[in-house]
Amino acid sequence: MTPPRLALNLFWRTFALLALLLAAGVLAWQQTFKALEAEPKALEAAQQLAGLVNLSRVALSSTDAINRVAVVKSIARSEAVSVEVAEATDRWLPYENSPFAQRLRKELVSRLGPQTVLASGLNGVPGLWVRFDVGPDQFWLQTNPAPLQANFSSNWWWIAIALGASLLGAAAIARLINQPLRELSIAASRIREGEYDSRLDESTLTSEIREVNMGFNRMARELAKMEEDRSVMLAGISHDLRTPLARLRLEAEMSVNDEQARTYIAQDIDQLDAIINKFMDYARPSELQLQALNLRELVEREAQGFRDPQQIVISVRLSAALRIWTDPTELGRILLNLFENARRYGHHGDEPARVDVTAEADSAWVLLTVRDHGPGVPPDKLSKLTTPFYRGDTARTAATGAGLGLAIVEKSVQRLGAHLRLSNADDSGFVAQLRLKRASV
């Protein structure tokens, strides 16, 4: 199954969901407060404007037409309010159509009469303009809309603070929720790597997490005991089997006169001993000691163990300056089993197996390729080759063995934190590719 392109860990997933929830809550409450505040603000603004208009109307209606000019001029001296005579040629802009403006307009009309007009600009002059009647005449009252806007404007700085606090709260909550799961994940990873001494807190206040931790610790203790028992059992089996094998070898050398029969018995004993070694290699735990080592030297050292040109010919084409982070014992075990696998199965007829060892490197990784020129493996069986005791087709199982070679390779690769890929070459042959971490020169 192909992994998703965007994969978030549990912390960021929880944080994102909580952040969205809290941010939506803040904005929803802000809009709610805004809607609840609209009507009282509109009533207050309408009352203030109606009061100014009524004062102006009283002042203008109590004077004759000649003295009204003086009254208009005296009102114009105020910085906050001015009055102008309405003309038929006036060009005015309608006031905004927000819920607040609609409520304000409705209140002014109800207080000042149906002929009242609310405008946001008059003859190119911006402001809050109210047209009202004084008898047969009409006038414009101008006032500064800033106080109205300031009273009703949203406090975005408060919203920013609330959102910031919500994000911090979401991060804290997500961390508290996911910390036990993170500890469980780390402990499980250590168990997978063979460290059975990992323990989780059994005194936590959350009952579900406490039960999970207690179950995990119990499982870790049982696995540690099973691993200890298995090590003791394998050591005993190895000792108990090798002692009679040694006696059989000695008895064959001393008592069997037929040279060919003695040779066959020795080969069978060597094969049994090799199978025991395979079992021990697969089962024994390994403590890694990662070092920056020369790759070509490691490969050549393991290749020297296959010196019979009648069975296998290994060609090593690696840069002398290529270095990797690895454990020499584990990588040696990997190479030994790959070479042995090629020696047994990577030949055609009576010809020796030919093995090519090459590598490609970038700044962070080294791709080590071990390829033989044998018959290859059926594609439907490639994924099963690392299964313990599994055997492929007869073309690659002509020789006897424990069926653990590639299983040991995969297990050692996992211990190193590397990656293994098995495939067939395009022009016949079996290919094993190891992706190893590169070390700086």
TrEMBL record:
GO terms for cellular component: plasma membrane. It is found in: Cell inner membrane. It holds the Pfam family HAMP. Keywords: ATP-binding, Cell inner membrane, Cell membrane, Kinase, Membrane, Nucleotide-binding, Phosphoprotein, Transferase, Transmembrane, Transmembrane helix, Two-component regulatory system. The chain crosses the membrane at residues 156-177. It is an enzyme of class 2 (transferase). Residues 175-228 form the HAMP domain. InterPro entries: 2C_sensor_his_kinase, HAMP_dom, HATPase_C_sf, HATPase_dom, His_kinase_dom, HisK_dim/P_dom, HisK_dim/P_sf, RisS_PPD. Its EC number is 2.7.13.3. It catalyses: ATP + protein L-histidine = ADP + protein N-phospho-L-histidine. One of its GO terms (molecular function) is phosphorelay sensor kinase activity. Residues 236-440 form the Histidine kinase domain. It is a multi-pass membrane protein. This is histidine kinase.
